[in-house]
Amino acid sequence: MLYLSHSTQGTSLNQSIQFPSPLLNLLDDIWKLIFLQLTEMNFKNLWNCSLVDKKWKQMSNDPSLTKKMIYEGFCFNPSSWNKYCSPWAKIRGKETVSRDEIEKAYESLPNLIDKILKSDCPAFKDKRIIDSHMLVWIPEKIKGQPVTIENLEKLLEERIEFSEYGIRCCRDEIIKQERAKIIKSGWFLMTTHIIPDSRNQSYFEQKNRVENFEINGQKGYRIPKIAEAIVCIATEYFRTKKRLFPFGTFTRCEESVESVNDMWQSIVGYFDDYGFSISLNICDCDIVGIAALQRFPASISELNESIHAI
Q1: What pLDDT, on the 0 to 100 scale, is given for residue 19?
Q2: Which of 141, 120, 140, 144 is nearest to 132 (CA)?
């Protein structure tokens, strides 16, 4: 139980007169409303509340409460797209992402997302998932158009400061092959940096390493696709102006281009004042590592389909 302590003259250093706090008589629902306000400062404060006593721990671990706070305070959700990418977002039809996607995104966010984010990170020692990943909603459409590399390029040209280009492509083969492919909507959990010691490794070594990562005994990681990586990295820039995967750093991606004798793997990164770079790579080198990504199903029907496919 929580007490308000008041030291008085004549008591020892380790003693105090304790008065039950009247605040504890508030209804649980009122406490939850108070906890929700913590999102405006830092939603991680909710986890600190769980350290007060058993009652606060029980309330602050309520899945409906933690999910809402994570959605609003950590995720790059549909409202975030409109906040950072739509000058006229308050006018229906002028949004970057349709308001109809807000409910869908919230419902499809895993109910146990709090447990996932608190878990130890399999890639970065001494870090939790929340400290080493970003969680991004990739919408069905951006400004009414499907999410493709071609349409992302237009958005990035508008939103990256002082940049003439949104995306630079060093190899025409990969952009011709992938430019118009539509990316599935859903929640994407991706590492904010390339995995330690993943530079100077072959694609197959990197791929095997990523696919063996587990969260709470469950596998599910894979290598990102080009557009998935671009969206996740770009949304962090939209929100904080921080350029992840900067000069001198690429992550390999799933897509590849086959030549006469070799298979060239796509790479994304080198995010500088000119935008993103997309290229092809065949050799192991110190500028090419690997990011790890998980995608959560965007609907209950898709979740059921994935379960049946197992």
Answers
A1: 37
A2: 120
